Each structure stands twice: as C-alpha cells, then as structure tokens.
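Notebook, bench 3.
Goal today: get a predicted structure for Alpha/beta hydrolase from Dawidia soli so we can plan the truncation constructs. The sequence was checked against the plasmid map this morning, with no discrepancies at the termini. Length recorded as 306 residues. Pasting the sequence as submitted so the record is complete.
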Amino acid sequence: MRSPSTLLLFILLVPAGTAVSQSQKSKKYTELDRIAYYTVADADTSRQRLNLVIPKKVQQPPLLIWVGGGAWSYVNPDMEMDLARKIAASGIAVASVGHRLSPATWKDSALNVGIKHPEHIKDLARAMAFLYTRAEQYGFDRDNIFVGGYSSGAHLAALLVMDNRYLKQQGLSKDMVRGVIPVAGMYDVQHYYQVLAEGNGHAFADNHIGSVFGLTPAAFQDASPTTYLDSLATPMLLISETNTFKYTRLFEDRLRAKEYKKFEVVHVHRLTHGQLWKDLSYADKSIYRDLMIDFVRRVSIDPVRQ
C-alpha cells in the first residue's frame, strides 16, 4: 500500500489567505493586484481574480498565465506571488490566476460548498480572454502567451491547451498559447482515482474526486488531458517531483506513444511535492525556475526577427 504522503500530493502545507506583500515590490516590475477578470452579475470576484506582474524596461514581454495548486479546492493566487515576482524580474510578465473552488470536506467539514469540473477550467479560459484582449493596456505581447501551473494548476494548464472547447467559448483558440508548463500535476483522472483509492480507501477517493470531477467514467474522461492527446500541438515543458513522478510518467508515456515531439520532461527525483514548490517560490537560485524561464525565452516568437 502506498503511503498517504505519496497520495495526498495536491495538499500544499502553506498558510491560506496570505496577502500580497506590498513591501516585496521591486523597481524591476510593476504589480497590479486583485484584478477581477470576470464581472458579470453572478461572478465571484473574490475568486475570479488575478494578480499581474509586469517587468519594467522590457518592451512587450511574454506573458506566463500561472495557476497555483490546492487540490482545486483551496487555490490562492496570492500564494504564488513569490514565484511570479522572481519570474517577472527575469523579464517575463506573470499573471497569477485564481478560480472558483470545489468542496473539500475530506480536508475540512466546513468546506462543503463549491463547484465541479468544468467550472475551474472555464475560469482559466475567462482569465486568458481577459488578458488577451488587454495586452496593449498592460504592455505584454499577446503573441507570446504561455500557460502553466503547479499541482492542480498543472492539470488545468494542460487541459486548457488540449481541449479547445473552453478557449473557443471565449472566442479564442488553443493555438493562441505559445507554450505550456505543467509542474507536479496529474493528467489522467481515472489513474489519479485508482492511486487514491489504493492508498487511502475508496471513501476518501470518492469524496475528493467526486467533489471535484464527479465519479462517472464519462466525467473522468472529460476532465483528463490524456483524452485529448490527438489535439495537442503546443510546445510543453513537463516537470515532476517524487510524489507526482508516476502521474507525470504516465502522461509522458502517452505522449511518446503518440510520437509527440514538442515536449520536454524533467523529473526532479531529489525533491518532494512541497519541496519543489518552495524551491521555485523562495530559493534565490532555482535551477527548475530557470528551466521555466529558459523555456519561455526559447519558445517565444521574437517579433524583431520576423
């Protein structure tokens, strides 16, 4: 039986509700906090919001749309701001995006209200549409938009560029995403359910997975990036750590079986799920953060050379 520490990989043990620190702002970038990207009458502007960090002295930088982790149930875009600032300091704009949340009674009985798939991914598509149409206002390059995420955010980032329905609903296309960076995620819901059930029991798996996706085979298939392998055309940097290695390896094997060539994979065998997140977010020098930055730079189209 697998240990719980291997299974509960989407639970980041970091404080909830940490506010964006104004004191950390640098002359290297401009930071715009708590921007509502969806403002219809029934919008949840406390969740459907983003923080935007724009590097100074860089003309039309590429944009990385980033979705943090939290089991689809307690994602907080403010928690991703250390990483966002470090990437922005390298000359890449970053939008840390929040989304509406699923119930998480498996963690806290009070967390009993929320949404299910596909509402999370619809929010991410809305955020991209908001940013795409305001590229000139904020000063980044709409032709060099990247999407990435950590943990549950990695799943959403991959799904956005593989299932075109959600961007199409916003008048956009997955072809408008220059590259995707899923870090420490899962990409096949059926496989994720099986691992949770084997390690923690079917009741736990039913509670967690059912609250986020539902429990039917059709729901599992609909929410899995592995379902849409034939439609993938976006360059991808795929990163795992010890807890998500098997999930990522399954995805990697499926990509190789399809002979998909436009992806790179890095397995970080020396760090756990939480340790990699802390390395990306807090380390003054992170080779894994540098890999992300290098990927954006290499894959971006340089308008000067066209």
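The chain is about 35% helix and 15% strand. The beta strands are 29-36, 49-55, 63-67, 93-97, 145-150, 177-183, 236-240, 263-267.
Flagging this for group meeting.
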